[in-house]
Amino acid sequence: MESIKKKAFVNRSAIQSGRPSALGQDQRMAFVEYLHTQPEAHFTRAQLAQALEQQTGVRFANHYLPVILRQMGLRCYKPQPVSMRRSAGSETVLIQRLQATFDGLLALGYHLDRVAFGFADESSPQLSANTARLWSLGKADRVVNTDKQRANTFGFLALNGVDYCQPLADSSAESFVALMPTLRALHSAYDAVVLLWDNLPAHKTAAVAAAAHRHQIYLVYNPPYAPDLNPIEGVWKGIKRRISEWGLVESIEQLRDLVQDWFGQITASSRLAKQWMETILLKALPPKSAISFCQPFS
User: Fold this and answer.
1) pLDDT digits (tens, 9 = 90+) for 54-72
2) What percent of the chain has pLDDT above 70?
3) Which pLDDT score, from 0 to 100, does residue 188 have?
4) For the packed helices 232-246 and 252-269, what is the interaxial angle rounded to 10 degrees?
5) Which of the residues 38, 52, 147, 244 has the least number of beta carbons within 10 Å of its own beta carbon?
6) pLDDT given at position 180
7) 217-221 and 192-197 as β-strands: parallel, antiparallel, unpaired?
């Protein structure tokens, strides 16, 4: 019994001595290289603590472990989920679809600088969204509106046009047909509009395609199971976080007003599509062709 107690004491001492300075630069680089060889890209704190102990012989206390991990360039965040059904070549597929669209516009005599480009999507924020992490003195409950109501909304995030947000009665083909004249009127200063959105069955009906054609709106469909390739998803994520931070939303009417306000604020104050333009749009442009709003990122 005495030897067991002594061993336990030694182990506790080892944990206390596991400070960030206990690892040299070579050990840190070797551990990072080791992580690159693992089949998984994400790890729990417990998994990293165990791997560090196995690879370096040093075991870190819980309050030191995040420090050393950040020093080695690791990040702690909520990973973006990717569907197992998503094709590995989704980005390439989208680039090819955009290339075909641009080639078609040029063949029709359009100049790409005279074409508006934007991202469309629908979302249904709820009254009781609960996505934000909040601080409090002790553990405190918060009062929310638990009515099962949603603010079904259509949004258009423009790269070089006009951002647009509109309550949507439903996600039927008739609703999207009715949106086409408004979208075109908002972009009357342009010769045409290119709209990227998802593969919702109502988006792909003959009626929607005909209405888009009548109004010089050219539809591009995002590859299946790849919502992250549509930057407007970041707008909806930001809106849901703000609803959660807001607290009590007393009515669906108030929620619709908040969604409208926040949509305008988020789209006006952020560069949500910057990375998309660099990794997708610039690769899709025809040779010796340019779109003026891409120039700051070239």
Assistant:
1) 998 888 888 888 888 999 9
2) 90
3) 97
4) 130
5) 38
6) 98
7) parallel
pLDDT of 293: 63
pTM confidence score:
0.78
Structure tokens at 79: 């990973």
CB-CB contact of 119 with 196 (8 Å): yes
DSSP assignment string, the chain: -HHHHHHHHHHHHHHHH--GGGS-HHHHHHHHHHHHTSS-S---HHHHHHHHHHHHS----TTTHHHHHHHTT-----PPP--TTS-TTHHHHHHHHHHHHHHHHHHTT--GGGEEEEEEEEE--BTT--------SS-----------B--EEEEEESSS--EEEE-S-SSHHHHHHHHHHHHHHTTTSSEEEEEE---GGGGSHHHHHHHHHTTEEEEEPPTT-GGGSTHHHHHHHHHHHHHHH-----HHHHHHHHHHHHHHHHHH--TTHHHIIIIIHHHSPTT---GGGGGG-
